[in-house]
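Homework-ish question, so no full write-ups if that breaks the rules, but can someone show me the predicted structure for this set?
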Amino acid sequence: MATIKDVAAEAGVSVGTVSKVLRQVNVKEKNYKKVMDAIEKLDYRMNAYAQVLRTSRTFTIAIIVPDLTNPFFCALVCYVEQILGAIGYRLLLCNSQYNEGREKHYIEMVRQNMVDGLIALSYANLEEYEKIDFPFVSIDRNFGNHVTCVSCDNEAGGRLAAKVLLEKGCRKPVYLHNGVRSGDIRKRWTGFKSVFDEAGINVKRINFGNETTLTNTRIHLIGEELERLVSSDAFDFDGIFTSSDVVALVVKKKLEQLGFAIPEEVQLIGYDGLREMNIGDYYVSTIVQPVKNIAMACVENLLNQIDKKPYQKRIRLSVSFGDGGTTK
Amino acid sequence: MATIKDVAAEAGVSVGTVSKVLRQVNVKEKNYKKVMDAIEKLDYRMNAYAQVLRTSRTFTIAIIVPDLTNPFFCALVCYVEQILGAIGYRLLLCNSQYNEGREKHYIEMVRQNMVDGLIALSYANLEEYEKIDFPFVSIDRNFGNHVTCVSCDNEAGGRLAAKVLLEKGCRKPVYLHNGVRSGDIRKRWTGFKSVFDEAGINVKRINFGNETTLTNTRIHLIGEELERLVSSDAFDFDGIFTSSDVVALVVKKKLEQLGFAIPEEVQLIGYDGLREMNIGDYYVSTIVQPVKNIAMACVENLLNQIDKKPYQKRIRLSVSFGDGGTTK
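A: Not a homework solution, just the prediction itself:
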């Protein structure tokens, strides 16, 4: 395994300079690049145990996600681990399974200094988060002005979906969603609605229930609910926008089963940008969240907090449209 | 948060009895059940920091997987985390990205007592694994008699795929695979072949290249290779078995694009049991690996090693067939 001396020799700098880069102390831009290139070339990893003994840090970050079986959360964890691994940090994985008790437990663990910082994608509105006084980045959910919140522009995402559907000829749009989620995610609806309002087109919204967890059973119920709407002639739409790709896929399958042609009769746009097997085609046309950029923004911000450097409190990332064949 | 006293009160036993259960010391079957029920009801979590101070343990397990974007590895990690979380253990996630250097680094970390044990799904044939003298469970890959290996019965999986295809009328079978993987996974082919050999039916095998990593680029190449086979009339099969569901999905899409009717003209069986979005339908008909059982077997075996209790060295789990619509 490469040592710090090997890195110094490869970079043509002193061991002290390498050490500074590793400890994120300011060094000359030129030397920083040399050292980072050498680290990458030699696949150098810091000796974690020695670090803990030398510093008060554990060089471990915890991430709380609600459900790792959801491909979006899985991709997020994957990128965070990759980015942390490259700079000698470890990732403790905390899968809350949408359980408040579990989330509380994990927060307590961080409080007890078992890790240096926390990234959380919370689905529980826990006051514990608001009281956090250690390095912490929240994804999507806003826990007040003192907590960093990284999110995508949900309102722009809703507007983008509406613009695409409008351009492609939809005149009877509907937003299908499940779960009462955090304030920011609700903006997908307000953004979507605003575009059709401006165009003078009536837009509907249907809530498939307030349960956020998308288990197999829940998904089955969404399909049944949709079937009821169709059979009672309450389904008269030519453009659908859903709160997530998981919901969009259920809707697509059920409508096709009921004889609707997609995208010819009904166009469909989901949210998240999920791909089959995580690497293939988009499941459906979708508003793509930049998962890798979210992961990078979280890690960078958290490290700045840990190193007591300046950091932003609000980070808002852009979304884009991905064609998955369910739009014309 | 529930304390050990709350658990004792709920279970109607002494704090000492709860403590014994938590430390995995033998207690009466009846009391064990009472305590476990109370732990579940109260969602009791052991105070991790206090434990580390009290014992020499870190109550942390590391898992090495080659690629978290692969839904099979993702599901495995998810279940391992769930099972560990329920008994007060934490999970350190190590995503090797098929990189030997990263795997070595993670092994070194475990050696340095940063964690109590290691579960690894290795794609690198590292001698470091053979030398491991701490609690360690290997999935699929056999690192010698002293290392626990948990695997599914790959030969039975291959035989099962062949039996299904044979029963459903296939007479021109082929095995499509990618990557030169560990000895045990090769048995999917030997099992598949043996059934057709016995039936006196000729069976082909096509290797899509020795690269195991299934990136977007690799998947694209598999599609191109298949297209070449078809256009050169070298593709004359009515039953396909693939080494993984990821490969099966590429094959399905490409063949459909080329005008083949699946399952009418060509039937297709993959391997792993992956579902759309991890919770929906199977992507393709498939040999289902019992991911949850694999996770449970790994954790149970590792804890026995940590607690210096007797443990098995070879654990072989059964597979089953899952109908995903690509067989008749």
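Now go work out the reasoning yourself. Hint: The radius of gyration of chain A is 23 Å.
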